Structure formats: structure tokens, C-alpha cells
């Protein structure tokens, strides 16, 4: 596979010399998750391929332009996976886009987020340098952890060229369950089950019933399935949820993602909702205004992001936190050429 890092570095250095903003992108499968960027396109997809992979050490290093489905196929051949279960949201999704958006699937509360599995990265900075951060080891805590800061940065801090990831073996046994209860009872049961050694790896209420996924050893999964006493169903629900293919997501109303404390409980949200991540993540279809949705989320101790391409998709930052973002941006991108305004107008 191609190592196109030299050409990417040349393009960044040329943009710095000319003061030209850059629109950094991969397959653009998540283009709707951010504000529109005006700038010269910098496409990372020419820079792809697995740099190194040691299945025995559970570590893989891959170039940012590599299609996400190709990375998952390489891991699957060794019976391994990305534990954070990142959504593709399109066939063109890349590894760089996975890291830049920081999105994780239904397993996230039990396995961890994208950033939790990032060991190191290579990044072209706004100083025109190609730098390496972190390392291919688990214990690497000295200094500023730039690699993990890149998760969810939407390309605003530099051009990600490589990422080293911790991977894990696939579960030996999986069971998909369904329990006919309302949301309030589902949240109560999940709170109780959270205090017990149950191998739950996904939990979502779809407005009608609670869906559960159990993963682990054959014995523990079978015992938990018998104990919970739920109906056993086919596994397609989780893929449809992760990739937003379920009928719920086809509703023409704007789609909102609310991140809430587990203790938020059953909220009186205007519209239709799914409670993912055991209640910590709510998918909401509503015609309510952005101000109303964000006020509801903030009132419950959380925040809201619009997935429908609105002008300001991300929840406004408090002034103090915005200053930290601006200082970080200035440190890595002093001329402000990388995806300017992608997340916030001030960045």
C-alpha cells in the first residue's frame, strides 16, 4: 500500500507558505457532523495500508487513509476487533475519520471509547513538521498526550497520517435479547444489572422494548441469558443501530444525539427517542428548535449534537473551555489552516 506522507507534508507546507486554509478529509462519510469548511481539499485516502500488526501483542499501526472496512477485515482474520465498535456511516469511511470524529458504537460504555485504544499517532502539524506522538506500548504516560486529544478533533489540529491502536479478541459467545418493558423500567433494571457481574456489552431501548447484547465466554453468556429471562432475537439490531439504518433514523426530522449522565432517568423529550448506551446516549428525532433541545440536555447535566447538518451542530462551549480549545489550536496550528471553523466558528 502507498505511503503518501511526503506528498501530504508538501501540500501542508505549501498551504502554510501561501496562507491557504485546508479542508482535510477522507471518505467524507461523516461530513454532516460539522460545519462547512472553506479551503483547499487535502484528501488522505492516497495514504493507506497497514504499517505493522502483531496479533500476539494486540497492536496494529495503520495509515489514516485506509478504509475502515479493510482494517476490520485484517483484524477479523486473526479473530480480533476494534473494541469501541466505530460506526462507518458509509462505505467510504477511513481510519483517520474514525479517529477524527471519535465516534463509538453500542459497546462504548462497557469497552471504552476510540481514544481509549489509541496508543500513538503521526501528525503533520501547523509548523510544517511530521511528528510522532505516543508509542506502540500501553504504558506511555510521560508528557502531553496529543494522540488521544486528536480523537474527536475533526481535523482541526493537524493532518493525522498514522495511528497505532490496541485491539482485542472477539468474544467467544454472543447472545442478543429483547425484553418488553417501557423506558422507565428499562433504566431501572439497567441500574440494578450494572451492579452485578453480567456480561452486558450493549443496551438500547427503542421506544417499545429493551434490547440487550451479552458477550463473553460461553458459560457466562449462557448463565446470564437464563438469569435475565429475556426473549432471544437475531443480531441485526445492533448493526442497524450503529450504522443508523433502522427505520427510526429514516424519519425526516432532524437527528440529535444527547449525551447524558446515567442518572438522568426518563426525560420528557419532545419527539421520538431511543435510549442507547444504557441510557447515557439518547437519539432524538424532533422538530424542536436547537435552543430547546440543548436546554433540555443541559438541564439534565449533558449536551446535544445535531447529526443533520445544521449550521452549528455542536453544543456551545463555556467561555473557559473555549479558551483551552483555542490555546490548543494555536499550539498545533498557529496559522489556523486546518479545517477552520469545522467544529466552532472560533476555531
From TrEMBL:
PANTHER family linked to this entry: D-LACTATE DEHYDROGENASE, GLYCOLATE OXIDASE SUBUNIT GLCE
UniProt keywords, alphabetically: FAD, Flavoprotein, Oxidoreductase
Annotated protein name in UniProt: Glycolate oxidase subunit GlcE
Enzyme Commission identifier(s): 1.1.99.14
Organism lineage string: Bacteria, Pseudomonadati, Pseudomonadota, Gammaproteobacteria, Pseudomonadales
Protein's UniProt keywords contain Oxidoreductase: yes
Gene expressing this chain: glcE
Xref: InterPro entries: FAD-bd_PCMH, Oxid_FAD_bind_N
Coiled coil: none
Species whose genome carries this gene: Pseudomonas fakonensis
Amino acid at each position: 500500500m502507498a505511503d503518501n506522507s511526503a506528498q501530504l507534508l508538501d501540500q501542508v507546507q505549501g498551504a502554510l507558505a501561501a496562507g491557504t486554509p485546508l479542508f482535510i478529509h477522507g471518505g467524507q462519510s461523516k461530513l454532516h457532523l460539522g460545519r462547512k469548511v472553506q479551503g483547499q481539499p487535502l484528501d488522505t485516502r492516497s495514504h493507506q495500508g497497514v504499517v505493522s500488526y502483531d496479533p500476539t501483542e494486540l497492536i496494529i499501526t495503520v495509515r489514516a487513509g485506509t478504509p475502515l472496512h479493510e482494517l476490520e477485515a485484517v483484524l477479523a482474520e486473526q479473530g480480533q476487533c476494534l473494541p469501541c465498535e466505530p460506526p462507518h456511516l458509509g462505505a467510504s469511511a477511513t481510519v483517520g475519520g474514525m479517529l477524527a470524529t471519535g465516534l463509538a458504537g453500542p459497546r462504548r460504555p462497557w469497552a471504552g471509547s476510540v481514544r481509549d485504544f489509541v496508543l500513538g499517532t503521526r501528525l503533520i502539524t501547523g509548523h510544517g513538521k511530521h511528528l510522532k506522538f505516543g508509542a506502540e506500548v500501553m504504558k506511555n504516560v510521560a508528557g502531553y498526550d496529543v494522540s488521544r486529544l486528536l480523537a474527536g478533533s475533526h481535523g482541526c489540529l493537524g493532518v493525522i497520517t498514522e495511528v497505532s491502536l490496541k485491539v482485542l479478541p472477539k468474544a467467544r459467545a454472543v447472545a442478543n435479547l429483547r425484553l418488553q418493558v417501557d423506558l422507565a423500567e428499562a433504566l431501572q433494571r439497567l441500574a440494578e444489572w450494572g451492579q452485578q457481574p453480567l456480561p452486558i456489552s450493549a443496551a438500547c431501548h427503542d421506544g417499545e422494548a429493551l434490547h440487550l447484547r451479552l458477550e463473553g465466554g460461553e458459560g457466562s453468556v449462557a448463565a446470564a441469558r437464563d438469569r435475565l429471562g429475556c426473549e432471544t432475537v437475531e443480531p441485526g439490531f445492533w448493526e442497524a443501530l450503529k450504522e443508523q439504518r433502522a427505520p427510526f433514523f429514516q424519519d425526516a426530522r432532524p437527528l440529535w444525539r444527547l449525551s447524558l449522565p446515567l442518572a438522568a432517568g426518563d426525560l420528557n423529550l419532545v419527539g421520538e427517542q431511543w435510549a442507547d448506551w444504557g441510557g447515557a446516549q439518547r437519539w432524538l428525532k424532533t422538530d424542536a428548535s436547537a435552543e430547546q433541545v440543548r436546554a433540555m440536555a443541559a438541564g439534565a447535566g449533558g449536551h446535544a449534537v445535531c447529526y443533520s447538518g445544521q449550521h452549528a451542530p455542536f453544543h456551545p462551549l463555556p467561555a473557559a473551555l473555549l479558551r483551552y480549545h483555542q490555546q490548543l489550536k494555536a499550539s498545533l496550528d498557529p496559522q489556523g489552516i486546518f479545517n477552520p471553523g469545522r467544529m466552532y466558528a472560533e476555531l
